[in-house]
Structure formats: C-alpha cells, structure tokens
Write the structure tokens for this entry.
Amino acid sequence: MSSPLSRSGIASRLLRGHHEIWERVEAELAAWHGCETALMMTSGYVANEGLLATICEPGDWVAYDELSHACIAEGLRLAKCRRFSFRHNDLAHLEDALKAEAAKAEPGRERFVVTESVFSMDGDAAPLREIANLCTRYGASLIVDEAHSTGCYGDTGSGCVDAAGVRDRVLASVHTGGKALGVPGAYVVGSTLLKEYLTNRCRHLIFTTALPPECGRWWLEMLPKVQADSAGREALHTGAKLLRRELAAAGVPIIGTEFVVPVVMGEDGAAVRVAERVRERGFDVRAIRPPSVPPGTCRGRESVHAGHEPDVLRAVAAAFAEAVRA
C-alpha cells in the first residue's frame, strides 16, 4: 500500500499538490539562511526564470552579468524589461550603467542587478560585497543565483550571500537541491511579501505540478547533514586548490578560482579530443561547447567533490596534461 506521502503531489501546489511537508522544508530553509521565508520550486531553471519573469516588469531596468545562466536571460526576456548585460565581474562597467539609470529617476520604475555567486562555466566567484554596495548606492535590488554555492560556502553551507554578510541587502537568492544537497527541486529565499507575490503571480509555480511530497522527506534528511559537514566543505576547497596547482604546474590552461575547474581549449575539435582522451584514462570529463559557452572558448570542465582523494586529483591533472600535449 502506498503511503500518504507518495499519493500526494499530483497537481500544482495551489490545488491538490500542496503538502504540509513543504511548509516544514521551507521553514528549515528560511532558518538556514536567516530569512523570513522560502518558496520551493521544481528546479533551479524554473525558479530563476519564474522569479525574474514575475517581479521584473516592462519598463524596469535589469543589469545582469554577461555569464549568467541561460535561465536568467530567459526570465528577463519573458519579463520584457529593459536589459543591460555588464562585462563579467566588471564593477566599473556595472557602476557606470547604474549611475546613468539612477540619473534618469523614472517614476514607478525599478532597478535590479542579477548575478550568479559562483559561475558554473568559468569557475570564479562574483564580488558580492562590492555589488551589494553599488546596489545600495544607486537604489537597485540585488538577486543572486546560488546554484553552485549552496552547501559549499559559509559556516553551515548556506552559500556565498550569507558568507559575504550581505543577506540583508539581497532581495532574493535562488538555490538548487540537485548539486551539493543531492535532492530534486530548488527554492527562493527572501521576504514574506516576496513569497506571497510569487505564490499569487508566478506562472511557473501556479501552473506546474508540484514535486512529490516524498522529495520533501529527502530534503529534511539532507539539510542537517549538509549544514553539519564543515569537514566536507574544507575538503572540497582543499581539493580544488590542489587540482588547480597540479594543472597549473603542468602548463594546462585553466581559468577561475573555485572548485569548478575549466580547462579552456578554444575550438570545438580540440575540446572534444581532450575530453575523449581524459575519459580514456577513466575520468568522466565532457567537452563544454556553444551555446553553453561563447564560440572559441570550448573547454573541459571538472567539478571537484569533497570525497576526491588527493591521488585521484593528481591523476586527473596528469591525464589532462597528457591530453593537452597530445
């Protein structure tokens, strides 16, 4: 006989798809981030796209990092707002644009800045404190995609926004479960007003079948484990530094600073051949090509895990060095 949990979740959350377990999950998430509340969504893509398409309106102005994920660009397209793509992590470029927009002071129009905290394709981090300072100075609301930082940064793994101490200056942050937490779904954290607005206006929530409540039990099981795993976070970043040192010493062309480690080869063919050769050595590396990255910047991308032993990381570096030479 199926349990009450498994029989639920057959409609949107506003109909029969809601289950009290999601209220428990959202309360735990809000406490983790020190926010008023959280709102569960079905995926990170849906959460980003739905959030931006709902709160940004035609006439609003939104600046977003040029390397932001496709779901951010798509959400802004749906919003029909005025969009400005600033050069990756270029604070001067962003400030010039903010200053120009603030000078216009259009009544009834809002300004937003959107960025990822850890960039999935370049393996570097946004200067969140500095971006938050600019938003405060020029009257813009900050939204941060924490997909690759949730579980991996901060004393309890709540992400880069909390680690940077800018939670009170962020309108919303978006977090996924499918990476460090290893569970399906995603969530938006912010104010009670934001949650109420999304619940009543966000089509990505209203017209989407809810996650099965059984998934909520997985969230409740994983959250305390991730929060308590400070040793795992230390191992993750130590391993990332080791891999980056080994690759750099071998002359492998890497970029970024974080545990996502891209090896940029340039053209499609070179990236594909390098990835194939590394896979032949037993490591699951795939070539990343357009549209995921701009033409001419194709790469192999490694994501270090807390459980990777130093010898394994050295072997990965050696495999890449051999593949690049070949």
